[in-house]
Amino acid sequence: MIKKTKCFWILLAFVVIQLSFSACAIVPYYSHYNVKADPHKEPPPSPRTKARPKAPSGAYLASEDVPWKVDWQCRDSWQFDSNAEAANPLDACPKDDNNFIGIAISGGGSRASVFSAAVLFELQRYGLLQQVDVISSVSGGSFTAAYYVLSCDDPYNAPPTVEGSARPKWDPDVVFPKLQKNLIAKWVRNSLWIVHIFRYWFTYYDRTDVMAWIVADTLYDTTWFKGRGFKFKDLNPQRPCLIINATNNTEHAGGTRVFCFTKEYFDKLQSEIDHYPIAHAVMASAAFPAVFQSVTLQDYSQKEGWYVHLIDGGASDNLGITALEKILEEKTDMRSKKLVIVIDSHKANYGKDPRDPDPRSLLDYYVDSNVIDAYQTLMAELRLGKTDGLQQWLEENNGKLIHLKFDDLEQDYFELHETVTGIKTNLKIKKNEAACLKRAARILVQEKMEELHADPEWSGLIQFPPAEGYDLPSCKFKIKNPKSEIKDSTNKE
What is the pLDDT of residue 440? Predict the structure, then answer.
């Protein structure tokens, strides 16, 4: 009798939780967050006639029209002056830089966000990150990409945000603790808040909205509780252009399924990207199927009630290369030198344990995890041709590809390779896993920078030897292989 009563309460609790996540949408709120463009909107006032605003909009950085010829040293040191005629580095800096440098950051949950951040800090040591013209990101990589383009190196000398909130600082001691937060645990707790349950019931509010709220508050902006989360207009003019990629899952979308959070794409919707919340763009890029609902934008170019539905960018391009290819082909010229760095957090050893006769977990009794394995298989196949095609194009057009991937660790750093490729694709990560990803980033970047330094055509781009790096935390390997000789020079840095 006691067991039956216990089972009854467990079943009842499960039903209540399920109902809590059901939506009736009686009140038409939270279906979309983009606003309609105002065709009668006047241009900014001339500095000779009226005072300039307190801070310039950085939304122009979300664009395929990358100003790659702007001198990067001038851009990185540019400061906003309300009395100056130049409202951003595009007007204030000379256009004499003939090098195009782009970075593509793959998906992979927290594994991708931590690894890509570690790589960016390593590239900064070699003076290369400072020269980057555009960052294109997907899924987990978008957490880091958005953070970097929002952030500043020195909070006391950074261009102010339009919203007035302080910019997050780009520093290992600040960035990694944020990216290593267990976002899934916070998501589960916050999903059961009574206010969110009411929103599930009576509006279009869903699980993705909750995670976007958590991402904004945890990673980017501590003033989110005041309703002032960072928007695209708050991007830092001292940073490179930012392209966050998602997949267009709308019927009859036509053409490529890649959707970029850029001015050009929003113009097609007759919408303004300036006012769109960055955290929602990041969650559109990371809206993994079976876990998060799609992110919706209203298409104001169509009749009333037309929408665009976006899911995880990995479904169409898990490396973020498509957007860079378009920019390279349409915006650069043959005389320019082109360097593209792909930060690839792909792991090949996914699937079920061959030693387990029943690999199902508790979750599999409700949602079969085979759908995730199938999805990762498709992404792996899609990934193979992307880098080969980009490398061939660069070789034919005065360019070079640097592909930073875990596979390059396998021969000389077997234990480290097995450890980092064993990290699950999730929005949580263990302390030791993050430590091993930082070690992997230092090894891989060091090897590629040494190759670059040895090439007279490209050596002038980097600072060599590099600046001193942050202290690497201890990394405990997942497995031990006494037969392999591991040469680990990372502790020498």
Answer: 97
Instruction: Return all residues near 149 (Cβ < 8 A) that are at least 6 apart.
Output: 61, 135, 235, 236, 239, 240, 242
The torsion angle over the Cα atoms of residues 427, 433, 436 and 442, rounded to 10 degrees, is 10
Q: Are 316 and 310 in contact (CB under 8 A)?
A: no
Cβ neighbors of 355 (< 8 A, separation 6 or more) are none
The per-residue b/e assignment along 371-388, b for 16 or more CB within 10 angstroms, e otherwise, is: ebeebbeebeeebeebbe
Tokens for 139? Answer: 């899924």
State pLDDT tens for residues 218-242: 998 755 444 558 999 999 999 999 9
What pLDDT is recorded for position 489?
A: 42
Using a 10 angstrom Cβ sphere, with 0-12 exposed, 13-18 middle and 19 or more buried, the burial of residue 355 is exposed
| Whether the Cβ atoms of residue 22 and residue 201 lie closer than 8 Å to each other | yes
Which helix (H) or strand (E) element contains residue 258?
Answer: strand 258-260
Q: 135 with 243: CB under 8 angstroms?
A: yes
**13, amino acid identity:** A
Q: Which residues of the chain have pLDDT under 70?
A: 1-27, 39-53, 222-228, 253-256, 349-356, 358-385, 479-493
> Given this model, what pLDDT does residue 201 score?
77
From the DSSP assignment, how many helices (H) and strands (E) are in the chain?
15, 10
Residues 6+ apart with CB under 8 A from 102: 132, 133, 134, 135, 136, 324, 327, 328, 338, 339, 340, 341
- Contacts of residue 407, defined as CB under 8 A and 6 or more positions apart, other chains included, come to 348, 417
**Exposed e or buried b for every residue in 211-220, given b needs 16+ CB within 10 A?**
bbbbbbbbbb
Which residue, 46, 26, 39, is CA-closest to 86?
46
State residue 223's pLDDT score: 57
| Phi–psi pair at 401, nearest 5 degrees | -110, 130
Helix, strand or coil for residue 60? helix
pTM of the prediction? 0.88
